[in-house]
Fold this protein.
Amino acid sequence: MSGVEKIVLPHTKMIASIIVDELCKTELTYCHERPYAFALLLGQQCNYLGYAIATSDSLAKTVENYIELGYRYQGVQKMSDEEAIRTWLKWANPDDGWHYGDFGGNAAVQRYLDIHNGDDLLLRNSCFEQLKSVITQYETDLTLGVIYGANPEDFRDSVIQIYGKAGHKSLVTEYEAMRRLDADICRL
């Protein structure tokens, strides 16, 4: 071995395949809801790996709920409350309108977490690499990313890390529109 070489353990290679299997299942489960994003969810100190999937139908229901709760658009752009709130919520962290899942106690997933020995940054970077591998194995229109904290920018940043500076589809542009609306959406 010369210099620093990456050691890839066999169960690490399996993670991308496990993610692909889960993507297939979730896309079938939620196909009638029009999925648009899939995020790996990381726990603190490498103690959990799950996922969330965002769908257009769940987003629409969430927008309706926000409007019922009294949220309104107060900005200067010509937008309806529904349009503004949809833009504002679409790429927010998966706390509203996303479906959650896990990998069912899969032993390979647990070993994958264990080899990162509590190093969150190492796990996060490894998940980026796994999703890059997923993209080469599985054709999907879903935006793939990683969520590892409470900051909504985490997902956007992970998408840029995985797909490159332009991101995937219109995520970066839509995300910036969402951030501009932060001060314009309020509960009356």
Observations:
- Strands lie at 35-42, 49-55, 71-73, 98-102, 143-147, 185-187.
- Residues 10-187 form one domain.
